[in-house]
Amino acid sequence: MAIEVNEALAARVIELRRAIHRRPELGFEEHQTAALVERELDALGIEHRRLAKTGIVARISGTKAGPAVALRADMDALPIGERTGLSFASEVEGKMHACGHDAHTAMLLGAAHVLATMRGGLCGNVVLIFQPAEEGPGGALPMIEAGALDDPSVDAVAMLHVDSRLEVGTIGISPGGVSASADEFYVAVKGSGGHGAYPHTAVDAIPASAAIVLALQNVVARETDPLATAVVTVGTIEGGYRNNVIADEVNMSGTLRAQDPGVRDELEARVRRIVAGVASAYNVRADVRVVRGYPPVHNDAALAERFAQYLRERSSLIVERPAATMGAEDFAYFAQRAPGLLMRLGVRRESSGATHPGHSPQFRIDEAALPLGIIALVLFAIAVTSGEIRS
Ligand SMILES: [Zn+2]
Ligand SMILES: [Zn+2]
């Protein structure tokens, strides 16, 4: 079956996307966005319920029995001041849809339009998940805990993320690991203060911290398999009072990234061991705190391969297999509960200025990609519910 998005629907989806873009809302504050989603679902006669404060789960039931598929879009914006100069730019100071979640939400509503008209010929159930707070603190887990994947129990779950590396007309579908875990770490180095002229009477936290920062570079350079992927970044370092005072305390923070869950565990253990060892050598105390963030996203390999082929046969989309990134996505939690597929939708086009990466104040997409994203979502729903592809 080939799916078409007619001009009226394409125009409606652009209108919805721009309305969301004008009123960006941060995590768990997506009240207007959620209300817009609910109004659109009501107009389509699609039943829905609220979960996890501003999250919405909707269901389109087919007329025949069959598997259940979930399609997920995130709705939140970022605390970034928009500098695109677009006519529909953010009207909220210091907030912007700079990651494309406005487009994700609008495309899922577009898919709802198409699926609602196909209801009579549909098998099983299509669950539409509109998720809050992907940029933090994370809305996926609270939605899952509130039952987003349970009624009906979902057999496969997919999402689209716009991607400024890929040209409009292309879609990225890669089997296996596609994003990284993102864990935060904090190190508090404590010595004892004193006069800068008498270092022997104090324990200086600054050289100890410098040694810790340098020693941490060893985790990736010397202790991680060169064929594995890992990042250890120290992002902040603060300490000291003035030029002639020995600092008694330095605080630093950083991020740990890995694609493999085993490497992720090793990173944490190595950071702890190295910090403790260097601290001991420099006679300071160092406390390490690791806050676990999103796990890596693992695309179900069979689902990815089969759907890539399915899309090639039924759409004009060029299906590519982009390399994994070290970014993080809380879709990972959905993909842990059911065979999952994170797809990357090309939105890049030089002539429309759509070249800046996500999280840039100049980020923009080429809206010609929106109907293509809808087609991919609808075809995924049909492929799974009809039983034509499975993991
Ligand atoms: Zn983002
Ligand atoms: Zn995003």
Q: Count up the domains.
A: 2
CATH architecture of the largest domain: 3-Layer(aba) Sandwich
Low-confidence stretches: none
Radius of gyration, CA atoms, in whole angstroms: 24 Å
Bound molecules: zinc ion
On the 0 to 100 scale, the average pLDDT is 97
Written as H for each helix and E for each strand, in order along the chain, the element string is HHEEEHEHEEEEEHEEEHEEHEHEH
Tally of DSSP helical segments: 9
Total DSSP E strands: 16
Largest sheet: 8 strands, mixed
- By CATH, the topology of the largest domain is Aminopeptidase
The SS-based structural class is alpha/beta
Strand content: 25-35%
Helix content: 25-40%
CATH superfamily of the largest domain: Zn peptidases
Strand order of the largest sheet: 1-2-4-3-5-16-6-15
CATH class of the largest domain: Alpha Beta
Distance from N terminus to C terminus (CA atoms, Å) equals 20 Å
Which outline best applies? elongated
